[in-house]
Amino acid sequence: MLKIIIPTIMLMPLTWLSKKNMIWINTTTYSLLISLISLSLLNQPNNNSLNFSLMFFSDPLSAPLLVLTTWLLPLMLMASQHHLSKEPLIRKKLYITMLAMLQTFLIMTFTATELISFYILFEATLVPTLIIITRWGNQTERLNAGLYFLFYTLVGSLPLLVALISIQNLTGSLNFLLIQYWNQALPDSWSNIFLWLACMMAFMVKMPLYGLHLWLPKAHVEAPIAGSMVLAAILLKLGGYGMLRITMMLNPQTNFMAYPFLMLSLWGMIMTSSICLRQTDLKSLIAYSSVSHMALVIVAVLIQTPWSYMGATALMIAHGLTSSMLFCLANSNYERTHSRTMILARGLQTLLPLMAAWWLLASLTNLALPPSINLIGELFVVMSSFSWSNITIILMGANITITALYSLYMLITTQRGKYTHHINSIKPSFTRENALMALHMTPLLLLSLNPKIILGFTY
Amino acid sequence: MNMFSSLMLASLSVLTLPIMSSILNTHKNSTYPHHVKNIISYAFITSLVPTMMFIHSGQETIISNWHWMTIQTLKLSLSFKLDYFSMIFVPVALFVTWSIMEFSLWYMHSDPYITRFFKYLLTFLITMMILVTANNLFQLFIGWEGVGIMSFLLIGWWYGRTDANTAALQAILYNRIGDIGFIMAMAWFLFNTNTWDLQQIFMLDPNLTNLPLLGLLLAATGKSAQFGLHPWLPSAMEGPTPVSALLHSSTMVVAGVFLLIRFHPLMENNKTIQSLTLCLGAITTLFTAICALTQNDIKKIIAFSTSSQLGLMIVTIGINQPYLAFLHICTHAFFKAMLFMCSGSIIHSLNDEQDIRKMGGLFNAMPFTTTSLIIGSLALTGMPFLTGFYSKDLIIETANTSYTNAWALLMTLIATSLTAVYSTRIIFFALLGQPRFLPLTTINENNPFLINSIKRLLIGSIFAGFFISNNIYPTTIPEMTMPIYMKLTALTVTILGFTLALELSLITHNLKLEHPTNMFKFSNLLGYYPTIMHRLPPLANLSMSQKSASLLLDSIWLENILPKSISQFQMKTSILISTQKGQIKLYFLSFLITLTLSMLLFNLHE
């Protein structure tokens, strides 16, 4: 694993030592190389995990997320070029350093063997993200957003620390690999219910669960493009990853503790997608759509069947790429119209036909058109929730319908219709932007050819 | 015999060639549409060979290749089912598409994005082929959603128009409601039979199939525009006419019926679902026929007649005759596509005028289109020995002689009669009488693309029914004997419809109706359905999402409960507890006092 971590750390000196005109090229190429190296992790030859050391390991669950993380760094760098173009060099370097630092933490989080080191790194990812949001956001509301982001996540995750210490006392180990074999059921007591809550809430907030999701739209809307991308694509998935890992040791409490959260997620999924129908702000719409998709993941994880785990993992990867792509598209609109309001960007298909094609593809994957991996994820979740309770199909079906509606509403509002006069003289789309979209889309399409590599450990 | 499957695959895969070449950019843009048209004709000719082999030997085949993935116990692979339904439908669809492609060469010739239009049509055709030949539910779902999305794109082809975008979104909305049913059926089959392969599902023959079949019925309702989810089909006429001809008459909209036909092995034992299907179909066929009566947009009338025919197909499935329904799908494709093309020809010639009240007298100006339109309408009404007769008459006869719901039967019969009425109306207003269009329109139908494409379908509309029903092996036992009045029912009601409509139309020339009656309003406003259903539920839903979901819950309650209340609480307590009040003088004074006091104390100590 060090062969990925050390190069990622070395990204920082690379940034600082690069010449002025080379910083973007150097860092992008280098991070792309790192992501190519990490692809080899997708090959998981045996049922056990790949143990590299006592500190780091990877298994079919963490490998796709890890590859997604490394894949996203070059994309974030490509996406940020424009809005940093007016910044002084040193700030650009600082920005790239932050991204590289975040990447390092994320890689280590996904590969940590020990729960406690997972926890520490999970918290550590907050720091660079917070800096990115509050330093490079566009409006003054970014400070408020940063505050929300920090406090929601911290308040949610501090009980986890206590819980982890108590588990350490109970079992003598916090090793993921050992926990799998520790099949002792937790006794049925009040304190264990709180243990369950403490363990899950940290990740529920991160996902986010409906009701605890307020930080997410704010952070998404205020963050610069790279921040939005990494938030939507990876930081939310940390929650899902953590839940998938930690539910293993929380039986049998999950069986009955899951009910309120399942209900809340099912309800919240409808609510948040309904909110999307009324959004005028493009980034906020995409953010709420993330909440709605992540609610599906929460449902899937809490149902705890092999199918639902597969669905959750597939949906996380699919949504990571899709929402990141949507944010990139939103950003390319923002850089031209200087507004996030959708109605101001209508009729763009006439002016930027290729961009409209990317919009179309992104919207279609967002509404889970078969045979994309988004559909595989959603379908598996729907299947498992149907087998859990037949009635959920009503809510799931409603959500599927609303998702299609707001995705296409977004597409129609931004791309279709007559174009407005104030966007007469916009710049054509750059090759950089098209390459960026293509790099999001290609993995999505290729993965739908062979989805089994992202189906996680229950495949 | 081994060439059977390979020829079929060849005919399907040849369709993907233009898509590939457009990715590789090996074609010239100006000839691309012709290229697509030719490819489809090749695919049609190729597909004829396996179809003839199939008709000759009746051998059904399942091709399974390319293992996609195995999830636990569920194996998913690329699998084609070459059975009666797909083998007959593929050439029919390819033939119709071929003609429509040629027609679009004429109709869309001035469109700057004609290449893209052809790509869309071709992609649609491919997804339709996937749908028809799919052997497992997942593959079927790919085709099912694919045709839905392509219909969205094609309806919204003129994306500058608000109406087109609304219609496209509406189509997706209704289709998605249907998809809920499809997904539920998939989930149920997975849960209960652990497979998505059709033949395995049928072999296992699960009990208590009400739930999945209801799901499939919902799916068919959405896709085939049955009552309740029907308004998208007439709205879809916002798309270009070739799109209406291909998607919304002959191929995509029959996908729902096709799905039910595919699942008839499960359905034939389930009486509950059958009666539901029957009633749904009967309501649809009557309701949409009534709506068609008073429309003035020529495309809308034909769209409603499509909807009505789809209702008839669903009725046929409801009386447990899937093969007959399938026959009607095939014959219907010919004349309905042709009717749309004729209307396209008229619309194009009259400078995009779609209102039949502003037509008239086209009998002289457009003889060829007129001929085709009349033959198409006659075929639609089931005139003996035209194509429609072979399926429609049989359906009515079978319905007459079956132990079926008399109300459903009556409704179907009335709808059959109304078919003649609205067909007459089109003929009367558009073709006969005096011209009512602007005098300076240049009417020219002498374009080989137009003539050839319509001619091909015209021949199809006359002979296809005979050919198909003569060649396929007998699938259902025909009614050997029946009273003469039953045999003649279909014909009688149709003739009745014709005469009535002719009389009524003549009356409109001489006698003007003073006030529109309530019946007229009901029919003209589409049964008030869009007025109610497109206003109240969306309004309720959208205001719910704005007011309760977004404002009340997100912006007020959730903000107040957690972040705001906490910060408020902290602020209050810190103000209350803190001794810091900003009174600098007092602080300094107390500082001074303590200092002096301590000094004094220290001094006193010594």
UniProtKB/TrEMBL annotation, chain A:
Annotated EC: 7.1.1.2
Biological process (GO), any one: ATP synthesis coupled electron transport
NADH:ubiquinone oxidoreductase chain 4 N-terminal domain span: 1-109
InterPro entries named in the record: NADH4_N, NADH_Q_OxRdtase_chainM/4, NADH_UbQ_OxRdtase, ND/Mrp_TM
Gene Ontology CC, one term: mitochondrial membrane
Stated role: Core subunit of the mitochondrial membrane respiratory chain NADH dehydrogenase (Complex I) which catalyzes electron transfer from NADH through the respiratory chain, using ubiquinone as an electron acceptor. Essential for the catalytic activity and assembly of complex I.
NCBIfam families: NDH_I_M (TIGR01972)
Name of protein: NADH-ubiquinone oxidoreductase chain 4
Gene expressing this chain: ND4
From TrEMBL, chain B:
Transmembrane regions listed in the UniProt entry: 84-105, 117-134, 140-160, 172-191, 211-233, 245-263, 275-294, 301-319, 325-350, 362-386, 406-432, 453-472, 484-502, 586-604
Gene Ontology annotations for the cellular component aspect, listed alphabetically: mitochondrial inner membrane
Gene Ontology process terms (BP): ATP synthesis coupled electron transport; electron transport coupled proton transport
Domain NADH:quinone oxidoreductase/Mrp antiporter transmembrane as annotated: residue spans: 134-418
NADH dehydrogenase subunit 5 C-terminal domain residues: 422-602
Keyword field contains NAD: yes
Catalysed reactions listed for this entry: a ubiquinone + NADH + 5 H(+)(in) = a ubiquinol + NAD(+) + 4 H(+)(out)
Compartments reported by the entry: Mitochondrion inner membrane
Keywords: Electron transport, Membrane, Mitochondrion, Mitochondrion inner membrane, NAD, Respiratory chain, Signal, Translocase, Transmembrane, Transmembrane helix, Transport, Ubiquinone
Signal peptide limits: 1-18
Function description: Core subunit of the mitochondrial membrane respiratory chain NADH dehydrogenase (Complex I) which catalyzes electron transfer from NADH through the respiratory chain, using ubiquinone as an electron acceptor. Essential for the catalytic activity and assembly of complex I.
Name the UniProt record assigns to this protein: NADH-ubiquinone oxidoreductase chain 5
